[in-house]
Amino acid sequence: MNHCKTVGIVISRVNYGEADRIVTVLTPDYGKVSLMVKGARRAKSKLAGGVELFSVSEIVFMQGKSSLHTLVSARLERHYGHITADLSRTMYGYEVLKAVHKITEENAEPAYYSLLQQVLGALDNFSVAIELIRVWFDARLLAITGHTPNFSTDRSGQALVAATRYMFDFDSMALFASENGAYGESEIKFCRLLLEGRSLASLAGIAESEGIVTTIAPTFASARTFYLPT
Amino acid sequence: MQGEAEGVSVGETDTLFVSLAAQLHHSFMQIARLSEKSANHASPADWRVIGDISHAAMQLTESYTLSVRLQNRQLEAQLEPVVVSAVLHEAVRELMPLASLLGVQLSVVEPARGSLALADPMILKAALTSLGQVFILSQSQQDEAKPVKFGVHRSRYGVVAGMYGSMGQLSTQAFKRAQQLHQRTTEPFQALVSGPATGVFVAENLLMGMSTKLHISRFQAMNGLAVTLPNCRQLLLV
Amino acid sequence: MSKKRVLLLEPDVLLGDTYRSALQKSGFVVDWAKTAEGAIRLADKRTPHVAVVELQIAQHNGVEFLYEFKSYAEWIAVPVVIHTSVSAVEIAAVSSLPSGLNIVDVLHKSHTSLDELCSVVKKQASLHEPL
Predict the structure, then answer these.
(1) What pTM value is reported for the model?
(2) Which CATH code for domain A83-227?
(3) Residue of B nearest to C90 (CA)
(4) Which of B26, B144, B145, C128 has the greatest number of C-beta atoms within 10 Å?
(5) ipTM of this complex prediction, to 2 decimal places
(6) Distance between CA atoms of B116 and B84, rounded to whole angstroms?
(7) What is the DSSP string of A106-136?
(8) Per the domain annotation, does B114 fall within a domain?
(9) Taking CB atoms and an 8 Å limit, are B141 and C58 in contact across chains?
């Protein structure tokens, strides 16, 4: 049997039988793996262990004949310990884990691992507002799954005009001109940067980003709900 | 010889006030529920509990007020030779009602030889009392409360006075994290205690008035938070 | 009929003692833990009919506890009443709490009398039989 060594982020833990747990780990090179952790339930601390939530761990596992493998060892590499100091961040962190678990049911590309790592890192950093993290996560998920909203042209393919206000059309996933539209030049520029894959840190540094995020967040949240499994 | 209070921003004062408000809110909630429970048949014991909760809340408020006055330079630290263990004993006397109420053992561990240092005794006592409240509360939140101790010992930097207990997760990293999270979350020092941990930050602010600060310390196989005070050289010559 | 069992996760000694007293007077057996791990150990001994959970606890917050608690098949159906000092502003609304944890009610301590707490717990206990 093969021993495999990699890093991973635990996205789910379920108890199994009297003494064991099954943990689901997202890795950059093996995708999503389900690992049996023998004797974990009887560990002195049921909330601790080598495979913690909100952590990156170096894991070694033995590949089984089925899709369930066995964890041989785990070493905590990085624990995003600040997340649980704040309830909103904790709740959102669990939401993110659940969303990634769901969306990687069929296919767990390396992009999801990178996305999750960046989101957890941002949640761990209290200088990055949670609202920005939410909209960034929604945008990146849409981009990875091929549902990128169009902020380059309007829905009829015309170039966007700086002085014009726009609204977002979910059918075409693009903007259309509207006198009282929520989207102006600043919002559109921000969305472009968001979809380009700009880092959270650089987005957080943009002037008035807080107000812009409040405006655009419902668009990305709705698009995600519409197009992606929940 | 007088100490200089370091200036702090208005934002930091506001944060500490919000933390204090949260802590007092908790005390009021305890009193409200206890009053409800005892509405028809309050016993002397119930009244004592209400009195002890109120006393602890007032202690914290007084320490907070002192810290604000130091920051605003309405008061300045008066440094003088102080027998640190005597200050610790006074702090224990202040904290004993709370410790008894919450079922936590409290004591002082002092060196065989004297512990003379340069400090403002009023500020030092207020800081240690505020810190003590948090440690007592922390132990009371464990399923099995272990003793907490005031300890004083010497290091090469001076006289170290602090509060110690069996807190496995208390580390320099956890303390730094708490200082960063103090302004950003309602539970900044989760490794130590649930809630705002106001006493720690009030103690920090008070000690800033003596140009010193809290640090993680280890003493007799226990972890804790302590302050290092300069040795008092004057009386050593006597 | 045997008494119904409440798992109380409450770190504060004074409040915990008060709530336990009130729930016992309402006819419940109360297993009171001050820590998340303590609560898991108590539930391990006897499955509760209802869990009453504070979100602000030392070392692990209440949400972490709930996810851990609900990772055990035998406790998935246990109704959870959040009874917390965290303000309504921070929690917003019940609907903003995570789904799948069987959170049936959110009570804010400062606005909830002992009678109200007992009444909510009674209602939930009557609806649920543990496995």
Answers:
(1) 0.84
(2) 1.20.1440
(3) B186
(4) B26
(5) 0.85
(6) 6
(7) S---HHHHHHHHHHHHHHT-TTS-HHHHHHH
(8) yes
(9) yes
CB within 8 Å: A94 and C98:
yes
CATH of A3-79 given 3.40.50.2000, 2.40.50.140, 3.40.50.300, 3.40.640.10: 2.40.50.140
Measured between beta carbons, the chain A residues lying within 8 angstroms of B177 are 81-82, 85
A10: helix, strand or coil:
strand
Over residues C54-78, the pLDDT tens digits come to 999 988 888 889 988 988 888 999 9
Average pLDDT, chain A: 88
CA distance B20 to chain A (A): 18
Q: How far apart are the first and last CA of chain A?
A: 36
Give the H/E segment covering residue A13.
strand A3-16
Q: Please name every residue paired with A36 in a beta bridge, in sequence order, or none if there are none.
A: A22, A70
Which residues in chain A touch residue C63, judged by CB atoms under 8 angstroms apart? Answer: 84, 87, 90-91, 94
Q: Which of A190-199, B90-99, C85-94 has the lowest mean pLDDT?
A: C85-94
Q: How many CB pairs under 8 A join A and C?
A: 47
Task: State the Cα–Cα distance between residues B89 and B65, nearest whole angstrom.
Answer: 23
The average pLDDT across A217-221 equals 93
C51 forms beta bridges with: C7, C80
B186 lies in some domain: yes
Q: Residue B91: its pLDDT value, please?
A: 95
How far does A117 lie from chain C, in Å, by closest CA?
19
Other CB atoms within 10 Å distance of the CB of residue B138: 27
Which helix (H) or strand (E) is B208 found in, with range?
helix B198-208
Residue B136: inside a domain, yes or no?
Answer: yes
Q: What is the per-residue pLDDT across A60-70, written as a single tens digit (0 to 9) for each? A: 999 888 889 98
Question: Which H or E element spans position A201?
Answer: helix A200-204
For B177, the closest chain A residue by CA position comes to A82
pLDDT of residue C10: 97
| pLDDT more than 90, % of chain B | 64
Written as six digits, the tokens of A60 are: 């070694």
Chain A residues near residue C90 by CB distance under 8 angstroms? 87-88
Q: Nearest 5 degrees, angle CA B134-CA B139-CA B141?
A: 95
Q: What is the DSSP string of B95-106?
A: HHHHHHHHT--E
The residue among A197 and C129 whose pLDDT is bigger is A197
Q: A112 with A100: CB under 8 angstroms?
A: yes
Return the CATH number at B172. Answer: 3.30.565.10
Of B146, B137, B124, the C-alpha closest to B227 is: B124
- Mutation pick from A44, A78, A82 vs chain B, by most beta carbons of B within 10 Å, is A82
The structural domain count of chain B equals: 1
Model pLDDT for residues A40-86, shown as the tens digit of each residue: 765 544 444 556 789 999 999 998 888 899 888 888 889 898 888 88
DSSP state at residue B6: P
Query: What is the number of structural domains in chain C?
Result: 1
